[in-house]
Amino acid sequence: MEPIEIGLWVSGGMLVMVVLGMRVAFAAGLAGFIGLCWLRWNGFDYDPARLWKAIEISVKIAGLTPHSKVSAQVLSLIPVFIMIGYLAYYAKLTTALFEACKRWVAWVPGGLAVSTVFATAGFAAVSGASVATAAVFARIAIPEMLKVGYNKKFAAGVVAAGGTLASLIPPSAILVIYAIIVEQDVGKLLLAGFVPGAFSAVVYGGLIIGIAMVWKNVGPPVTGFSWKQRFESLPPALPILAVVVIIIFFVYNPFGDAWGTPTEGGAVGAFIVFLMALYRGMRWGQLKEALLETAKLTVMIFTIIWGVLIYVRFLGFAELPDAFASWITSLEMSPLVILICILLAYAVLGMFMDAIGMLLLTLPVVYPAVMALNGGELVSAADSAFGMSGPMCAIWFGILVVKMAEFCLITPPIGLNCFVVAGVRDDLTVQDVFKGVAPFFFADAVTIALLVAFPGIVLWLPSLAG
Amino acid sequence: MAGSAAVLEDSSLLSKLDRMLLPIERFCALLSGLAIFALMFLAAYSVSSRKFFGAPMMGYVDYIEAAMPIIAIMGVSYVQRDGTHIRMDMLVSALKGRVLWFFELVSVLLILLLIVALTWGAWEHFDRSFDCARPLCSRDSSIDVGIPIWPSKLVVPVAFAVLALRLLLQAWGYGRALVLGLENPAAVPLNLTIEEQAMAEARALEENG
Amino acid sequence: ATEWNVSVWGKRRAFTEHIEKIAELVSEKTGGEFTMNVSYGGLSKNRENLDGISIGAFEMAQFCAGYHPDKNRVVTVLELPFLGVENLEQEVAVSKAVYAHPAAADEMAQWNAKLLMTSPMPQYNLVGTGDPRTTLEEFEGMRVRATGGLGKAFEAVGAVPTSVTSSEAYQAMESGVVDTVAFAQHAHLSFGTINQADWWTANLNPGTVNCPVVVNIDAYESLSDAEREALDSSVDEALDHYLANYGELLKRWDAVLEEKGVEKVMISPEVLTEFRATAAAPARDAWIADMEAQGLPGQELYDLVVSTLEEAKASGS
Ligand code: NA
Ligand code: NA
Predict the structure, then answer these.
(1) What is the CA radius of gyration of chain B?
(2) Using an 8 Å Cβ cutoff, are A440 and A395 in contact?
(3) What is this model's ipTM?
(4) Are A79 and B44 an interchain contact pair (Cβ–Cβ within 8 Å)?
(5) Ligand with the closest atom to the CA of B90
(6) Cβ pair A298:B32 closer than 8 A
(7) What is the pTM of this model?
(8) How many CB contacts within 8 angstroms connect chain B with chain C?
(9) Which tens digit of pLDDT belongs to each residue from A260-295?
(10) In angstroms, what is the span from residue A77 Cα to ligand 1's centroid?
(11) Which residues of C touch A59 (CB under 8 A)?
(12) Ordered alpha helix ranges (H), A221-261
């Protein structure tokens, strides 16, 4: 049998296991391991006497992968980012941030909702996880909005949508994972997320103001904060600003050399938030809980990483990614149409799967194909299909798929953020939240279309960094 | 979807064993958390000694790489215990009773097959780097400061061995539920609906925040 | 038909040309019966290539001695600083001699590996940002990307070796994690460090790294006589091709420096002598003592390098 056929059978088998509810990490690892055995025995012409040898070699290849793959300096960024998010709860940064946004921008039409979006965007800057952001702001922001007479569904929709911003605005665990899988510069990807993330937040804000101006009863403005109150609200939220600035400057310093690696930036940011949490009364018991929760999420993510990388190792021997890439490039369609089809496929897949699992399972095959579509890893902007160099295409596609994954957090049937918001609020059903979030759903579709049409939005900042 | 779930306890031997394994798993996960905490200090120390004192830290990359397996793998069993490893639960969330336990049992047995193979393979990987006829038993060393790599490689089979024990208990738990037709079996993570999960998550935040 | 998987890393560059060439040659000589499938990072991480050979995951692989000195103590003799190797031909000669030594073969046999050929590298000179560093005082506290014996040499004069991977070297330089990077010329080009550089040391010549190509012993022994003959007889040809190719690259080098505006720094002979005195002898003595203590013929290996190098220089290469 041809290695590629084995590759297809095993990949199919893996999908069946995933659909049947096996944990994604282990389904991928098992598929990779079985695939390695099969491929090796196939190489031995199915000689029964050499079956054990084939298994032994595969056990050793698969068995060295977890250690080999996790022992990489760049990966240390993931736990540090996750820890910042958990420590931020104890530093009480979320309430401080919402309070500050409220005092500064609540006077516009739909003001509290705009404040919520900006506060979620700000919180996104210390948190890598979207779902957690939605849960937190459902508790803080919805009651305040209801108090001043907001439409309940609209308020819920604002929080669910705002929660999706966390994965684009750095720090973002999912962008780091993307960078590692496709072996691109982590720092540049984090930078690249910043503008589209802020752009999404502005689009949301504009949409809210528009809605509030047309339907006066949806979200009345809130006025009456003095300048003194406004400035008083800033210091408690300041660590967030510090973390954002530090991480950006560690990756790209517009005034000179960058300050260091993203991990170091994250570590310094985490340290500041840690001090803030101590100041706000965190003690050993809570720190221990934070560390356990950080460890849990970290291990969960790393298990998928090494599990999928066992599968990727098998794919390397089966040469499947090459075959898929040459198939894609041989299609008689314009590269842009193919790219849009791929993004739509992600939209469908994202309705049923967790974003990280979805990206990790598909990227090993899809990413080389997209790169080939553009003209290869080393193509220059002039010779490429999408008008950008290989590394820039990698960044652009990364931001697109992550935005896509975020989009899926608010789409029916199982947009997770909507479930979380409904879960936190006893007075809201999932249907209510889906109704409230619908305008943002269209805003996101427009944002994605703009990111596809004008890659400069994504690529401007990373291209400054050289 | 992240599926953190409830694990019931009762007076059975299985549940007793489950509660005996739990502290070990918690300890492993806490090691992982402490390693992350230490990593924060190490990176912050490294960057400040470099930036402010012009004295870069020797072997910084080596130490991080050596710590990564503890951070990334040590807690793997703790995460399996309450079902936090992500999966697609479209299908299983629609199942009930014996059919559900059957699917869960098969799934756990397949994972067990993988983990037994990986424990063996990871042990071999450790063993290739370990030779006590050599100084510090080292047959594989790091790139900058030459520290032995075997302790870091040993972390993996140890963590996987704990996970294998956990999987055995879960296989027993699901098997028992399948045979006896139990409604809410002990010692296995019970599926929550997506609403229940969200509620649990919000509650967790409430308690922490 | 025999198909070998070959594990290398990075992308195709001057450093992998002998492997591409040998694949081409064996296929030609056996009429397509014996082929090699060269994979750039698809089969293993570079620091696990020797493990992969040991397992039998693939049949041929490249690795560098300094990545994991304890796995390959014997060949690290070739990474000692200031051995005095002047060109790639001499590098090939000394590597060949050491690879043929029973101690080297024995140690590799523990990994089920047989040393096939070296990947000759020129002297690893520094590129750096900021003002050129031309005295030993200026090396103090310098963060340098240098592995193995080279790293040790810079450490001896107070610098701090920091081993980011080669693909991260560019970013490490840009972000100030390292001030300088020690690479061969092709790597300064292929990993982009030359684009960050303000200066390049033309004559520091502190030493180089040694990166053997090895084959799995079982796979080698199960080749048919014709296939084995095709492989063995292609080694010299492949290395000749490598040297010719690298020679072309070196010819272009000065033009590249000029084009990128990189200053060519000459270190004064006094400083070089001082550096050598500080770094070379202590590193060599420490290495020999360490090897002898572990029951390896350290002195003999070092003497072998010195005598082979003398012969090579005498015969005009
Ligand atoms: Na974020
Ligand atoms: Na969805």
Answers:
(1) 21
(2) no
(3) 0.92
(4) no
(5) 2
(6) yes
(7) 0.90
(8) 54
(9) 778 888 899 899 989 999 998 889 999 998 899 889
(10) 13
(11) none
(12) 227-232, 234-251
